[in-house]
Amino acid sequence: METVQLMRMANEVRKGALTAVYSAKSGHPGGSLSAAEIDTYLFFEEMNIDPENPDKPDRDRFVLSKGHTTPAYYATLANRGFFPVEDLKTFRKVGSYLQGHPDKKNTPGVDMSSGSLGQGISVATGMALSAKLSREDYRVYTLVGDGELQEGQVWEAAMLAAHRKLDNLVVIVDNNNLQIDGTIEEVCSPYPIDKKFEAFNFHVITIDGHNFTEIESAFLEARKTKGKPTVIIAKTIKGKGVSFMENKAGWHGTAPNDEQYKLAMEELERAGEALCQKL
Description:
Pfam families: Transketolase_N
Mean pLDDT: 97
GO molecular function: metal ion binding; transferase activity
Keywords: Metal-binding, Thiamine pyrophosphate, Transferase
CATH class: Alpha Beta
Protein name: Transketolase
Family: Belongs to the transketolase family.
């Protein structure tokens, strides 16, 4: 896809994520909106996947370690063709296969039931190690929150991944600098994130997580990196794309009301129309 097409798709992911949270009257919009470009690039450009055969053995694996940001994850999967976009309106409803955290058993395209922070990256490390032991070529990607880096299990996984030279593992840190109680610096600072991963012998790349040119370059660099895992530290804006949500910790886990949803969707519609004119 061309860059403008990717930008348009990220905008659609944001619309789908907000629709899911609004329909459920609960969920996590802030961190979903900050991850829209990363999710879009992974599922539309980077990963070897097939919506018609979601369990094919040689597929690349993705683990949403920050498992509460399913609104963007589901919106990405839906737009990629794993299930109908209309089903996003069933998010968190009783009987829906689109629950608040990923459910591998019931949701097409989901490789791990995640949600307990720190565990996703641990399982992703295990998946990457399994590929190495089985001499299989698939790659493993995991999206981690910057607040999630406060979990000790993250660093246990990082230590093992580097020790086993898992160059088929790519960790993406959604570094939007906010968690539910405020900035990550105020709550329990994980900074400097890059130096910490360097100390664990990761190949470190820092990018603007909303810039598709930088995102593409980072994933290409990760593929060329041999003998160690890669971490991509994506500098992002919580609530990106909706002006009144941007950089507001209060939108970590708050659903928009009727008026707020209308304003947000109008803003995203205008952004989408502007991108259409660039095609």
